[in-house]
Amino acid sequence: MKGNVRSSRGLFLSCLMSQIVWFVSAVILLLLFCAISNSMSDPESVSMPLSLCALYLSAIIGGVGAVKLSGDGILSGLVSGFISAGIILLLSALPLPSSGLSTVNSIILLLLVIPASVIGSFIGKKRSKKIKHYSKRKRP
What we know:
Strand content: under 5%
Radius of gyration: 20 Å
Order of helices and strands: HHHHH
């Protein structure tokens, strides 16, 4: 009965461990989308949408990983989303080239990582099987 035994990890530690899943999926998706972008005639026109797509897909995958590791449902997706947004905020402090977005747009796009992670926790949450009650048919 492995499924009934809860892990000894807490919510926060499980969400921290799910950041590894988030980071690996983000790197893989970014590499895949960069290859797609470079195969086009004008890669600069699709680089921003593809990178945002990779960001939000990896946040969804991170939310699924958080709920699978902790089993706490939506709360684990929320905590994982906040941790992911914090990591992205720290990465944005590095002296890298600018994205060309305004500060307000950048903050909005950063905060959308949190609902994406919650959506991932909805997707990854194990649902209970509903018992179907069949009524006996009356035979004439």
